[in-house]
Amino acid sequence: MSPRAGLTPDRLTEAAADLADEIGFEKVTLAALAKRFGVKDASLYSHVRNLQDLRSRVALLAAGEKIDRIAAAVAGRTGKDALAAFAGAYRAYALERPGRYAATQIRIDQSLIAETPAFRRTGEITYGMLRAYGLTEPDLTDAVRLLRATFHGYCALESAGGFGAPRDIQTSWDRAIDALHVALTNWPPKEEPHD
């Protein structure tokens, strides 16, 4: 069997995701992927359009994996328990799968997002958890952005070794979740427009 015979878009995507975890998402190239399969770069173009297509595929794969973990963690939970489970699953994925996680942070074509079940499911689970705090739009979107910025910032700093103080990192994480719970429970009221 020739090395090319087993190439499929899904197999290439999975291999690129593995490679991203090993060497970093930004270092994944078509040449590096071709080398892994023992083929020439040109052999990949019948399965993926270009590097951006490959990166988008890795992002979609990773988004699905991440939300599957989060969904399993939050199942049957509400309020602070759901928030802590959501945050814990998010953080675990980011730290265990750094290349895949980095892929979930890239900007993806909105048409791909609209037709991808993982992104719809992410919205449903995230917004569902936040509705338990009594939030409605536009506060829901603001709360989603607060959570994403907090979780991403913490994970990025942690994985880069950015927390140098002697305080235990897990303890600080737990306190951050406590603080987010307080913020969500006591969300500021909407400002009335001024005349």
Describe this structure in words.
Helix content is 66%, strand content 0%. It is mainly α and 195 residues long. α3 runs antiparallel to α4 (79-96), α4 packs across α9 and α7 crosses α8. The longest helix has 24 residues, at 51-74.
The largest sheet, given as strand count, sense and whether it forms a barrel, is: none
N-to-C SSE series?
A: HHHHHHHHH
Count of helical regions: 9
Distance between the amino and carboxyl termini: 75 Å
Name the average pLDDT: 92
Mass-distribution shape: globular
Sum up the structure in keywords.
195 residues
What is shown here, in short?
By secondary structure, the chain is mainly alpha-helical. It has helices at 9-23, 30-37, 51-74, 79-96, 98-103, 110-114, 117-131, 139-159, 169-185.
Write the layout of secondary structure elements.
Layout: H1 9-23, H2 30-37, H3 51-74, H4 79-96, H5 98-103, H6 110-114, H7 117-131, H8 139-159, H9 169-185
Helix pairs in contact: 1-3, 3-4, 3-7, 4-8, 4-9, 7-8, 8-9
